[in-house]
Design brief:
Layout (H helix, E strand, L loop, with lengths): L2 E6 L3 H11 L4 E6 L12 E4 L1 H7 L12 E2 L3 E6 L2 E7 L11 E4 H10 L6 E2 L4 E7 L2 E6 L4 E4 L1 E4 L6 H7 L6 E13 L11 E6 L2 E7 L4 E9 L11 H9 L18 E7 L11 E3 L14 H17 L5 H27 L4 H15 L2 H12 L2
Helix pairs in contact: 1-3, 1-6, 2-6, 6-7
Length: about 375
């Protein structure tokens, strides 16, 4: 008998899972999204390593128009404005699976367009759920209900659904940093290799610049900040002052890159992952655990989690929930530890430690055993 699955949230994780389910004859599913529509206009970028590209290729990603993405060849490390070394990203690639950068909206559109239009229902918010024998009954705020075999919650780091389901207020942790993003026209990128990812390490800040297609670059800066009044983040003069006193302080050549529209927000990570008190409820993506951004694995982990959950749904076992939780937690803990270490290393300010870090990075980048262990185990699952 076909199992029915409800997915809460039409983000990368939820849409990836839906595409995998659609290609199986064992499931019926529907996606419930709280917003009125999906935002397919924003141009900010994401990075996808081979671990997620191999999964997306199973649902036709390799057919995406080449103008929609980019395959950077190297990751260039800079200590302020001085280049330290570059990492060859192609060593993790295969002929059909390559490190990829693109707009988040391009990936969302691809995933959405692969689904039948009636499989996403908008303006839907959960009010409460009930366990009815082996099924889950979902009650929505608009009075509608649904009864499913499994409920997958994939509505982000601020998952209000998790708090409603578990009857406990789950709040993510402020990471002590803010992110500032802008889109840069490719022709305005002059001091960095346009075909590579550029990582600029500075005192209490780092910036990443990379192409999302043949015309645009994504520039994101992460700055340590003890700010408590997050309303200030919406003030453009406040954001410009933060940039001036952090990443631009020792990288004046970057000033022209921040002349476009700026978007900023506080960075949050998860406190811990949980197993739901309802045996047929599963958390996916940032709703499961939001990792720090310093390994660019946020989107990739949502995609990985989707296929792990799909494969467990297909198994003829009783305790699917705990198997998924242990599998996902083991993976996410490894990446979270590496991300925290990167964040620490990228933001060093003491001149002695900066000099030592740069020497060490040069040696480690050329150490095949280290690269395979530290990055290979993340980029190639």
């Amino acid at each position: 008998m076909r199992k029915k699955i409800a997915i809460i949230g039409a983000g990368i994780g939820g849409l990836t899972l839906a595409n995998l389910l659609q290609n199986s004859s064992n499931f019926d599913f529907i996606i419930y999204e709280k917003n009125e529509t999906l935002n397919l206009d924003e141009g900010f970028g994401i990075q996808l390593a081979v671990n997620s590209i191999s999964i997306l290729n199973q649902i036709g990603f390799s057919s995406l128009n080449k103008s929609e993405f980019f395959n950077p060849a190297k990751l260039d490390f800079y200590s302020n404005q001085d280049k330290v070394v570059d990492l060859d990203l192609t060593q993790f690639n295969t002929d059909i699976e390559k490190y990829t950068t693109l707009k988040r909206s391009s990936l969302i559109k691809f995933l959405k367009d692969k689904l039948f239009s009636n499989l996403i229902r908008f303006n839907k918010t959960i009010k409460e759920i009930e366990q009815n024998k082996n099924n889950i009954k979902i009650n929505f705020t608009d009075g509608e209900t649904d009864e499913v075999d499994y409920l997958v919650v994939s509505d982000g780091v601020f998952s209000s659904t998790k708090s409603i389901i578990e009857n406990k207020n789950y709040r993510p942790n402020y990471y002590g940093a803010i992110a500032i993003r802008t889109i840069v026209d490719r022709k305005n990128v002059k001091d960095f290799d346009k075909n590579n990812i550029s990582l600029l390490m500075s005192s209490d800040a780092h910036a990443v610049l990379y192409p999302t297609n043949e015309k645009e670059h994504n520039l994101v800066t992460v700055v340590r900040s003890k700010i408590k009044d997050f309303e200030k983040i919406n003030n453009i003069n406040f954001i410009k002052a933060i940039l001036k006193n952090s990443i631009l302080k020792n990288n004046s050549a970057m000033t022209s890159l921040f002349e476009g529209d700026l978007a900023s927000w506080p960075i949050y990570t998860s406190d811990k992952s949980i197993v739901s008190k309802f045996k047929n409820v599963f958390y996916l993506g940032d709703a499961f655990y939001a990792v720090p951004p310093s390994m660019a694995q946020g989107a990739s982990q949502s995609i990985e989690g989707a296929i792990e959950l799909f494969e467990i749904f297909e198994k003829n076992i009783n305790d699917k929930q705990n198997l998924y939780f242990k599998t996902r937690l083991n993976r996410i803990e490894k990446i979270s530890k590496r991300s925290n270490f990167n964040y620490f290393a990228f933001h060093l300010s003491n001149k002695f430690f900066v000099r030592f870090r740069n020497i060490l990075i040069k040696k480690l980048i050329n150490n095949e055993k280290f690269i395979k262990s530290y990055l290979g185990r993340v980029f190639r699952k």
